[in-house]
Amino acid sequence: MGLFASGKEGKLVFYKTSAEIELMRNANLVVSKTLALVASMLKPGVTGEEIDKAAEEFIRDHGGRPAFKGYGSSENPFPGSLCVSYNDIVVHGIPSKREFKEDDIVSVDCGVELEGFYGDAAFTFAFQDVQEPTMELLRVTYASLLIGIEQAVHGKRVGDISSAIQEFCERKHPYGIVRDLVGHGVGRSLHEDPEVPNYGKRGKGPLILEGLVLAIEPMVNLGKKEVLQAEDGWTIHTRDRTPSAHYEHSVVVKKTKQISYLTTAF
Ligand code: MG
Ligand code: MG
Question: What is the CATH number of domain 3-261?
Fold first, then answer.
């Protein structure tokens, strides 16, 4: 789940101790295993509701709580355990009875709270008949995440992450990098400061120091950058209805080892 840009809620930057990071590792391990379970289930004909149900059972069986379920206002809490966002849906898609098709892409975002700490990661999966321009969008977006993570080093600034992602995505392609939603700190809350935009200027923004845990999550559109929110109050789709990709890892900034992934590749 991304954070709406400048959705400030008066939070503070929260640096984690090594003991707290180990607790966060446990939460993020459940996130990673849940996404691996989802990956094993995905095929044409399966529905978002089905993967959501399996994910919720898996998370609860491992002592966790699906962090997205009930998130938001009491009038319109998010109903799913996963965000399931296919094709032109960027993020925050509500799991539905719609069956996946052979030419779909589907972004699955998973958040888990375990022992008071949160984990957060997302992956865009492709079915077998996805067109090459969309496959290239997925490859570039995932590569931009890894390039952004390389900048999450003690002594750098958030703008170093943001600009690395933006420059990589825009180098060869006229992709639209989503501005309205951003990455974020993660820890005792799902969304902590600082915000981590996927666009920005090198050397600008908050300082990155040891013990900071960041959920870095480029959201990149095949077409233009503008997005709209659907009437359900959650679903974010591209304004021009082109496909969109979303990858997210939670990482720890360290002084010695520099970077530590809390979520793992699956
Ligand atoms: Mg997420
Ligand atoms: Mg997130």
Answer: 3.90.230.10
